[in-house]
Specification:
Distance between the termini: 26 Å
Radius of gyration: 17 Å
Oligomer: single chain
Helix content: 25-40%
Shape: globular
Length: 243
C-alpha cells in the first residue's frame, strides 16, 4: 500500500490552510464493543474535548460492516450511505473550507479488501480533502515484516504497513482509549500549536506523534504505569522523542 493512502493532500497550496476553515468528518467503520458503547463514548468525548470545527449533524458510522463475513453483503449498504453523506457534505461546504476526513477503523476493517475499495470509490469526491486513517481496536491477522528492534510495537508497525497509525484501545477501559483518540485528532489538526494554519505533518511526524500519544497517560484516576510526558513544543513545532 502506498504512503499516499495515509494523507492524500500534498499540493503546495494546501500547506497554508487556516484552522478556522477546516471542518472534520469522523467516519467510524467497524465496532470495538458489542453494545456500541465505543461510539457513544466517542460522541461524548468528541463533543466536549475537540478543539476544532466539527461538521454537524452526526458522526458517520458503519459499525456492523465487519459482520458481513457472517451475514453476506447486506451491511455494505451502510458504506454506501456513508459515501453519499460525505459527497453531500463536500458538495455543500462553503467555498474556501477544507474538509478533513478521519477514518476510524478496527484492525479487521483496515485489513479487509472492501476498505480499499471504499476509499477508491470515495476518492472521486475527496480529491481535495485531507484524509487520515486511525486504527482503533480489533485484532490484526498479519504478522509479517515486523522489526523487533523498532521503537514501534507490532500493532503500530502493522498499522504503518496499512497506511495508517494505531491508537491504543482496551475494550475493558474504553474511556481512556477514546480520550487518547480524540487527543490524537486534536494534535493532527494542530490545535496544540500556535499559529493560524494547520501543520504540514509528514508521515514520519504523524507516526511519531501517535507513538507519543499511545504512551502518555489518559487514565481518569491512577496514572498509567510507565506513562511518558507529552513532547515539548519549541518554536511552534513539536519535538518528538521516539525511542
Amino acid at each position: 500500500m502506498s504512503e499516499e493512502t495515509f494523507i492524500m493532500i500534498t499540493k503546495e497550496d494546501d500547506k497554508n490552510v487556516k484552522k478556522s476553515t477546516v471542518i472534520a468528518l469522523p467516519v467510524f467503520l467497524g465496532a470495538r464493543t458489542l453494545d456500541g458503547s465505543d461510539i457513544e463514548e466517542f460522541e461524548h468525548e468528541f463533543s466536549s474535548e475537540r478543539r476544532f470545527i466539527f461538521y454537524y449533524p452526526s458522526i458517520m458510522d458503519a459499525l456492523n460492516v465487519n459482520l458481513k463475513k457472517h451475514h453476506g453483503h447486506r451491511y455494505f449498504g451502510d458504506l454506501v450511505c456513508v459515501i453519499e453523506t460525505i459527497k453531500r457534505i463536500i458538495d455543500y461546504a462553503d467555498e474556501g473550507d477544507k474538509v478533513v476526513i478521519f477514518y476510524i477503523v478496527t484492525a479487521d476493517v483496515a485489513e479487509s479488501s472492501y476498505f480499499d475499495i471504499f476509499k477508491k470509490v470515495l476518492k472521486k469526491y475527496t480529491s481535495n480533502c485531507f484524509e487520515y486513517t486511525i486504527i482503533v481496536g480489533g485484532r490484526f491477522k498479519r504478522r509479517i515484516g515486523i522489526d523487533h528492534d523498532s521503537p514501534y510495537n507490532m500493532w503500530e508497525q502493522i498499522a504503518h504497513q496499512l497506511g495508517a497509525v494505531s491508537s491504543f484501545f482496551n475494550s475493558d477501559a474504553p474511556t481512556a482509549g477514546i480520550k487518547r483518540l480524540v487527543e490524537l485528532m486534536n494534535r493532527i489538526m494542530g490545535t496544540d500549536l500556535p499559529g493560524e494554519n494547520i501543520p504540514d505533518y509528514s508521515l514520519k511526524d504523524l507516526r511519531q506523534m501517535a507513538w507519543h500519544v499511545n504512551r502518555e497517560n489518559f487514565n481518569c484516576r491512577n496514572v498509567r504505569e510507565g506513562a511518558i510526558q507529552k513532547y515539548n513544543i519549541v518554536d511552534g513545532k513539536p519535538v518528538f522523542n521516539v525511542r
